[in-house]
Amino acid sequence: MEVNHRIPIIQRKISDWAESAKADRSHADSATGSCILLSVPEINEAERTIVKVFQQKSFSQELEWTNSLVKISMKGSSIFKLKPFVKEGVLRVGRRLNRTDLSDDVKHQIILPARYRVTELIIEDFYLQNGHTGTQQTLAESRPYYGS
Question: Which PANTHER family match (predicted)?
Fold first, then answer.
């Protein structure tokens, strides 16, 4: 399926989740109207779906190589040195941290495509969550989740 055609699917999926959440958990307030509350799993699934779509757009060849049973050289790839692998459909960094007590998400961060608005929005979210800290602090806060 073409990646550009999948974006409306994401929007529809998020909209369906929002409608479901609204029906189940909305709280009417005369001053502000109703508020849609999404659960953590719903938000995580939406984020994972968005990352998958943009990874497919940026790293289609790498995803094909990592899903292949035949080892193909990825030396021409911009992410070759990260030793990428796929977990739950998401391209992640494969490093030598397997023996640490860190969580899998910290050991194997999600690889974000460069020069995409969605990547900028994810980084901006970390920036805002951490009180408008500087560049280095924002990067430090995002590294446990997203590869550099």
Answer: PHD-TYPE DOMAIN-CONTAINING PROTEIN, RIBONUCLEASE H
Distance CA 142, CA 125 (A): 9
Residue pLDDT, tens place only, 9-24? 556 666 676 666 555 5
At residue 43, the 3 state secondary structure works out as helix
What tens digit of pLDDT does each residue of 52-81 get?
A: 999 998 888 888 877 665 555 566 778 888
Mean pLDDT, rounded, for 113-121: 84
CA distance 22 to 116: 30
Domain boundaries, the chain: 39-132
